[in-house]
């Protein structure tokens, strides 16, 4: 699969950047609270969009309004920290911040039992071990045998993990940076202007590792990753494209993420 720029055209609801520019200038120049409020209101629909996409893959008892509340915190942080001079569209930056805020709050609740987290880790490790032994991604039957469970139990585990796992491709960009903090999505998005060569090399290495991990996925999992992350389809819409149920897409997505997470964990920092 070819590596594509995940940036998308601005959604239909997105405010006109030209109209937003004076607000950004006022906020950066004087911290104008009225400009901050107007920017938050203008981009509030983005929170609903991100929360809706995340909510479709979470258990039904997770309240959508709570996700929006968590996301608003991320949007406020994005408005405070965004630098228009970076040449990055605000929507691209804010989506990572909104999703991160939601994930942080949900992880604080962490409803997943320890036994399920343990099984998730075993599946990740088994996937990597089999791929190294076989020279290809393992089938469900092979993966189940390696973990020591039946294919039916593996399928049930994937359903459980898909409802509790907060792992997503976006998180693979969080690599240790200066000062011990993780790099944010904005730090690995291409910037057309010259930057620090060492920094560019590090970010290129991260992108290369992720692209290699995606390339090793079985075809259907690779398609799910492409449609969900690059084309912005929901799990239901991906299912319509593939002619399968949303729950099946959720399983394919979970397997893809667990495979890549195990692979990246085994590689470690470059």
Q: Determine the CATH topology of the largest domain.
A: Arc Repressor Mutant, subunit A
- In the CATH scheme, the class of the largest domain would be Mainly Alpha
The low-confidence parts are: 1-8, 167-194
Number of domains: 2
Task: Measure the end-to-end span.
Answer: 22 Å
What summary fits the major beta sheet?
none
Rough outline: elongated
> Averaged pLDDT, please?
77
The CATH superfamily of the largest domain turns out to be Winged helix-like DNA-binding domain superfamily/Winged helix DNA-binding domain
How many strand units? 0
Helix percentage range: 55-70%
Order of helices and strands: HHHHHHHHHHH
How many H/I helical runs? 11
Query: Structural class from helices and strands?
Result: mainly alpha
Strand content: under 5%
Rounded Rg: 20 Å
Description:
- It is a single chain.
- With 270 residues, this protein is mainly α.
- The chain folds into two domains: 111 residues, RNA polymerase sigma factor, region 2, helix turn helix motif (Rna Polymerase Sigma Factor, Chain: A), CATH 1.10.1740; 159 residues, Winged helix-like DNA-binding domain superfamily/Winged helix DNA-binding domain (Arc Repressor Mutant, subunit A, Orthogonal Bundle).
- Helix content is 66%, strand content 0%.
- The protein contains eleven helices and no strands.
- The N terminus is likely disordered.
Write the layout of secondary structure elements.
Elements: H1 17-30, H2 33-55, H3 64-81, H4 90-109, H5 114-134, H6 140-147, H7 151-164, H8 197-215, H9 219-230, H10 235-242, H11 246-267
Helix pairs in contact: 1-2, 2-3, 2-4, 3-4, 5-6, 5-7, 5-11, 6-7, 7-11, 8-11, 9-11, 10-11
């Amino acid at each position: 699969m070819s590596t594509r720029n995940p940036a998308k055209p601005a959604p239909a609801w997105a405010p006109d950047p030209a109209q937003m520019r004076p607000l950004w200038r006022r906020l950066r120049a004087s911290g104008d609270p009225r400009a901050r409020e107007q920017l938050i209101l203008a981009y509030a629909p983005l929170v609903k969009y991100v929360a809706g996409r995340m909510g479709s893959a979470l258990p039904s008892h997770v309240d959508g309004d709570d996700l929006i509340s968590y996301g608003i915190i991320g949007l406020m942080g994005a408005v405070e920290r965004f630098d228009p001079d970076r040449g990055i569209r605000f929507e691209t930056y804010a989506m990572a911040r909104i999703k991160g805020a939601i994930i942080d709050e949900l992880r604080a609740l962490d409803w997943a039992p320890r036994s399920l987290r343990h099984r998730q880790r075993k599946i990740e490790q088994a996937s990597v071990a089999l791929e190294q032994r076989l020279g290809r991604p393992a089938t469900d039957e092979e993966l189940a045998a390696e973990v020591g469970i039946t294919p039916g139990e593996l399928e049930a585990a994937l359903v459980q993990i898909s409802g509790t796992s907060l792992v997503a491709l976006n998180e693979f960009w969080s690599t240790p940076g200066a000062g011990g903090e993780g790099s944010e999505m904005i730090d690995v998005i291409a910037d057309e202007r010259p930057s620090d060569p060492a920094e560019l090399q590090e970010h290129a290495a991260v992108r290369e590792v992720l692209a290699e991990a995606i390339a090793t996925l079985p075809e259907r999992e690779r398609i799910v990753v492409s449609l969900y992350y690059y084309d912005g389809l929901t799990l239901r819409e991906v299912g319509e494209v593939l002619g399968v149920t949303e729950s099946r897409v959720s399983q394919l997505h979970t397997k893809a993420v667990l495979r890549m997470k195990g692979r990246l964990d085994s590689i470690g920092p470059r």
